[in-house]
What does this fold into?
Amino acid sequence: MRDGVTPFVLDVKDLKTVFRTRGGEVHAVNNVSFTLKPGELLGVVGESGSGKSVTMMSLIRLLPMPPAEIRGGSVMFEGQDLARIPEEMMRAIRGARIGMVFQDPMTSLNPVFTVGYQIIEPLRTHMGLSKAQAATRAAELLDLVGIPDARRRLGDYPHQFSGGMRQRVMIAIALACDPKVLIADEPTTALDVTIQAQILELIKELRQKLGMAIVWITHDLGVIAGIADRVMVMYGGQVVEQAPVRELFANPQHPYTRMLLETVPHIRGERAAKLRVIQGQPPILSRAPDSCPFLARCPQAFDRCAHENPARFDVGPAHDAACFWDFKTGAKRDV
Amino acid sequence: MFDTSGAKKLVEVRDLTMHFPIRTGLLRRLTGSVKAVDGVSFDIYEGETLGLVGESGCGKSTCGRAILRLYDPTAGSIRLEGEEIAHAPFDKLRRLRPKMQMVFQDPQASLNPRMTVAGIIGEPLMEHTKLNAAKRLERIYELMDAVGLNREFANRYPHEFSGGQRQRIGIARALALNPKFIVCDEPIAALDVSIQAQVVNLLEELQDRLGLTYLFISHDLSMVRHIADRVAVMYLGRVVELAPRDALFADPMHPYTTALLSAVPEPDPASHDDAERIILQGDVPSPANPPKGCNFCTRCPRVMEICRQIDPVIREIAPGRHVACHLYAEDTHKTAAHAAQPTEV
It folds into this structure.
């Protein structure tokens, strides 16, 4: 592969992030490991507080430190460990080799600068382009993300764009330096469905044209089903299941994933009389887990789950789940 | 499924219009208006759930609030059990308030952080009933039981609860005066998926037990399909389609409804392969300056010449199915429309 040493563009191992607050520690990310292949779209699903955003923000070191602290693990990207390199090197990677798109385009764009200025900025900083070159490239980028009349709109301010258009601008900025990896954190959550459909279409198109790898964070299982190649489900700061998208939806092997898929109503097909409910609340992550995080809400739980945090077991080709219960045999796992 | 034929109309909304003035300049002169709700008519039958869907800015929340007279409507009529409330004076409204209540979107913002749960749920009782303290507490406990909150939490403050529990407090408050009609304005939008199901099931259970009538405002079409008996679709201040739930989701008639439904991603990877997705171009026009003719004409994939000239009126074109679209305007058009309609699910 392109990297020579590894077939992965991103290889995260045992990442651990802790927030130190006055009320004590919050173990937001607990030994998260995952890989990303070139050109792949990895969907990360989970509820609020499951650690999906914090994981991604940790690996590009975009968290305020303190209170956040990366307590362990490695993040290999282009032969370097992002958890260890100095901040100046990180700055050269962030926004250039790794692009970011956030949830709310209104708060992530600076309202007092023109959109053109904000696209040109990374081009000048990271790629060393001249003003004129950068302006041309910026217009190309806006055109690429489907903003009509691109050159003229460079002079407009963020408030002159609609929500969907602003998100296109954010994508243009993220793509400006031709990143290898794009991290998209709930990029369509603040948008209406018809606008979301436009953005999803755009991303599919851009993937074909540019071929970058994408990490797509969302809580919307519908979006994930349509766009991801592989899905990672997070719960209580951990990865509980990981599989290719079709396998995950057809054959979920963690009780949380199974229940989550049943709680969402469908727009087509049969209509359930009553929605399946996951009783209880997500765990409070005040210390490093010594039991399964889903223990309190799990219908499958047995004594072992209370003493030991399950590792991720292989349950199929490229499919793993962190559960002591084996749904395939319908019995406890004897490992 | 809910049968409207023998049912009694609880709420009748006719030509409801809610315009907000735009004032500019030093003299704050009136220079225009935001036509948030622009001539909306529908009925809500006793015991049913009417889903009101649409994208942000389409006027669905304004509509719900205007029906409860949280705004003073610009024009139109709203009748609750036959009593006109659109322009009713304060005293009359106050007498009617216990019958109609609201559950808000953001349980964080709609609960006073300085009041205890008992205080919040008990406030409507203080205002509208003459219960003494002991009786009131008894009623508060009863309500907490009904929505699944532990009685021991009565003296806690909202911040001590999770989002789902806070929404339960909001629901208990809405139920305090035994209302007939509740407007639920995006009650689950701020909640996580696994918690959404808990709250929706609670709302359904309460409806069965207490015979409540809901106006359920939401942008989540799959959830509306789950909870609503009939569904009204709004676009830019107008109701473009109103139909029984199954009919609407199986066979949407208005081009906007069709596009809206096809834009919802299903949590099933296989469904994305063969999905003929209709991607609407562009954005919703500003409600301060809606287009001439049909409001949807700027984005409609099946726009005709007449759409840019004449605003279609909403008409019942099949039993219970109301559509505002020129495709169904006359019999000649109707056949043409159906012939041209792609056969899709």
In short: The longest strand of chain A covers residues 24-36. Residues 193-210 of chain A form the longest helix (18 residues).
